[in-house]
């Protein structure tokens, strides 16, 4: 239900001779059924959805310990990859297309185990994709191909495509770390909200960006430091979901030069 998945869907639709469907992996048996947003996206896309679900014992996971290290989650993208193999095989699909982008190839700047850098998005990286694809072909389904349609794209380019091709989904998609139940789809406070708002503001008119989030986040004083960390690069604290490589930093600086949100379009907070 986020922008990356919707961009992959838009690219798949551009190939009219290829049948495609959503594959949704739920964190809990009723996750899809209880989400109006996910159901609305499927209805608007007019593509079928194939669903699987898992029930995790998060309490047990939180008690696990490996020396000095404790797990902070589970490799969800890897789980989705291999769940999709079963779904694709049972339904006669030859390709599994996911939406993992280039920044997943960069680590977190934390080194452990003799200098090995931690990458919390390892199972979204091209290294994982290549190894998973080889494993699938050798041991599971020889003619099935697992790949990311966005692997060679940075967030900035993905957002540009999203704003060009996916505007019908603007009022129902969400890429927020703190989604709450109720009327609001975005918390409009977390780093991920600020990150997506900043990127979208570079490609759509200000009122349209504001309508997605329910407000103009550039005018929220409480978010000033968050935007500085993402937009200007003053702060060193950047959310893990907004990981950048050197090329993406250059792209962000280009957006900063060309589309300042104080450029006079609509007054303060007018652009992005």
Automatic annotation (TrEMBL):
Residues 173-242 form the MurL C-terminal domain. Residues 241-272 are annotated as: Disordered. Residues 249-266 have a biased composition (Basic and acidic residues). Residues 1-148 form the MurL N-terminal domain. It holds the Pfam family MurL_N. InterPro entries: MurL_C, MurL_N. This is Uncharacterized protein.
